[in-house]
Amino acid sequence: MSEAYVHGYDPRENERLRDQAGTLVDLLHSDTSYPSGSVVLEAGCGVGAQTVTLARRSPGARFTSIDVSADSLAEAKRKTDAAGFTNVQFQQADICALPFAPESFDHVFVCFVLEHLSRPVEALTILKRVLRPGGTMTVIEGDHGSTYFHPDSSAAHRAIQCLVELQRLAGGNALIGRQLYPLMVETGLEAVHVSPRMVYVDSSRPDLVDGFTRKTFTAMIEGVRKSATDAGLIDPESFDAGVRDLRRTAEPGGVFCYTFFKGVGRKIQE
Ligand SMILES: C[S@@+](CC[C@H](N)C(=O)[O-])C[C@H]1O[C@@H](n2cnc3c(N)ncnc32)[C@H](O)[C@@H]1O
Predict the structure, then answer these.
(1) Which of 11, 43, 85, 228 is within CB 3.0–4.6 Å of 80 for a Cys-Cys bond?
(2) Selection from 176, 109, 117 nearest residue 139 by Cα
(3) pTM above threshold 0.85
(4) 3 has pLDDT over 70
């Protein structure tokens, strides 16, 4: 699986992940809550941007949230401690080498992680192993190919394409959202259901203009400027023109659309 994590771990990226999670809570989480007493594995929790929502929406469930990054885990713990949650424990662990017994979780939750892995079905298969029969696996991913906006701009599409290409070079797939259904079926999950979750942003929704178009999506593209130019994918002027045009979609009259995909499947009862 991929070792490189294209977004990195700097504080601005952590802030972006928090803005992303805060803005998208209802869209992504409104139909996720786990019964009291259930034991849930959150794989690749990062700085805990989703963890806080999971813990709040399922106060009676117990979460184990893992990540490979010790720094991210420390930040996630600070956040859940500050929010007063006592139903989450954090553990440094790699999805490829899970330190858990088979069938030890009632549910598994994975958000924005598969896109960074070179063998997503292998990762899902490992996660399925620690899920009890009848338990659910929830997977949320984006798909940068689902991005369209007004005013349209080929420069902006080229800048986005740089991130898609960088992620591909690192072994990941920034277009993975559209593949969730086949990936989850290939993993052997049953009753797989994938729903597209579209974020539509126009000037009448200033919270989304700021929280999503500017601070989530455009910030994510801006974050790969150096890697993209260093890799020779684009020259700095063209990249900056693309980012400028992305920012324009957050000005009055601009419109921005992006689609996330959320899949839920169940481990077959033998
Ligand atoms: C884009 S972040 C998403 C974090 C969080 N799920 C969210 O939605 O904000 C991806 C996270 O996956 C973690 N990750 C990547 N590969 C991993 C692996 N093999 N095992 C565990 N965590 C991994 C990274 O360290 C990073 O924190």
Answers:
(1) 85
(2) 109
(3) yes
(4) no
CA distance 21 to 76: 13
* Lookup: tokens for 163: 């991130």
**Cα 232 to ligand 1 centre (Å):** 27
User: Is the separation of the CB atoms in 62 and 39 below 8 Å?
Assistant: yes
Alpha-carbon dihedral 36, 39, 44, 48, rounded to 10 degrees: 40
Residue 96 CA to residue 69 CA, distance in Å, equals 14
Please name which of 80, 106, 104, 77 lies closest in space to residue 90, comparing C-alpha atoms: 77
The percent helix, strand, coil of the chain (3-state, each to 5) is 45, 25, 35
Pocket of ligand 1 (CB under 6 A): 1, 5, 7, 17, 21, 44-46, 49-50, 66-69, 72, 94-96, 111-113, 116
The sign one gets for the Cα dihedral 175, 181, 183, 184 is: positive
Q: What band does 22 get if pLDDT is binned at 50, 70 and 90?
A: low
| Token pair for 22 | 């805060």
